[in-house]
Amino acid sequence: MEAASQQQAIVxxxxxxxxxxxxxxxxxEMVVALVKINVLYVFLLPIWLYRGKARFxxxxxxxxxxxxxxxxxxxPFLKFxxxxxxxxxxxxxxxxxxxxxxxxxxxxxxxFDQVIASDRHNNLSGSDKERVLCQRFGKSxxxxxxxxxxxxxxxxxxxxxxxVNPERGVEQAVQAQDRHERTIKDEGRxxxxxxRAVRPHQWLKNLLIFVPVLAGHKIGEPFSVWLSxxxxxxxxxxxSSVYLLNDLMDLPADRSHPRKRLRPFAxxxxxxxxxxxxxxxxxxxAIALAFYLGPAFGTVLxxxxxxxxxxxxxxxxxxxxxxxxxxxxxxxxxTAGGAAGGMEISFWLFSFSMFLFLSLAMVKxxxxxxxxxxxGKQSMxxxxxxxxDLETLSNLGGGAGYMSVLVLxxxxxxxxxxxxxSHPDLIWLLCPLLLFWVSWIWLSARRGEMxxxxxxxxxxxxxxxxxxxxxxxxVAAAI
Length: 479
Known about the structure:
By secondary structure, the chain is α/β, with parallel strands linked by helices. About 60% of the residues lie in helices and about 5% in strands.
């Protein structure tokens, strides 16, 4: 028995990388990072793939450097490997990933004795991996840890099989080979993770689409309300597809953020391949609704998607331009509501919304920087802001908020108000309410009580609800 135990101790454990050691696909992450560097690489990707998977992986890896310290490692499995390493068990990282990324991960973890990976000419996957491992260690001369159907070829020649976060049906197939030693799983993945990824709570922002119907006093017209509902659904689906795309583009920044690192893609709870597939699935019904609502709405929706895509790829890293674009994206929602119902958006509403949403966009950045300051960091990953910008953002954002109150006051003093409202003087009461709310939002942010999204904060904030209800009563009384 003791001899058998000693023999087992010297049998190396060969470890797969993607889906096994890390809860992601490093190749897909590098492709996303490459496209983010320069979108024109999209046209080179098919050419590299035509030359073979090994060449494809080499060309991508040669141009991208992933921060391996931020990758979502499979913690229960990593703990098992660290224990085996402490006992003197040889550990081999045997992966179809490119040698560059495999070496970087092995160096970071410091537990692997060897690295066997794909190079420019050879793709170490499936039967090719089996052949190389048998040549190196002999048939049944190694244990193998993997997760996918591609690993079944390797397990056939392994001494024992360690199954980690298996794909559907893989564990049963390994057990049929009579080499199964153990199965290691981390947290379960379910539909709730996909629901979190599409961020349905963010759809509340799309309620801005109903502003033109309310401002134009058409809330009593069923068809106008129906068009606004269709526009709301279209924007919500489109926004969710953009959120998925944004999360895929922003993985390194999210993983270094105290809260965003828990997002489904950043944490590895959802495959980034699945995320890529979800994007067109959500986008197609949004496009269908855009056709129903007409070319004006379709143009606004396309502009929203294009601007958000540009924001995700490039603009979010440009200081001040990013908050201006965020303010514009909020205002586009109001424009979409007008386009869906064939209503013209007034200069007053445009001006008011731009100043107000610019203030809220700066609140968002301010809150994120404040979180970083608490963690002792000086700058935001993937952004151009620094902790020393806190005071500047506070001054600019507060000023923009007060400018929106000024626009509201000028609007109340215009002739159009006397046409729309029977008691226009009551509308003046909105000014002190808005002054209070803008001040309250910034006071909360300065105290560190602000969620990094001010609109979601307002939805859960009691003073904000009081202001909203009081405003609704004032407007109803003025009509």
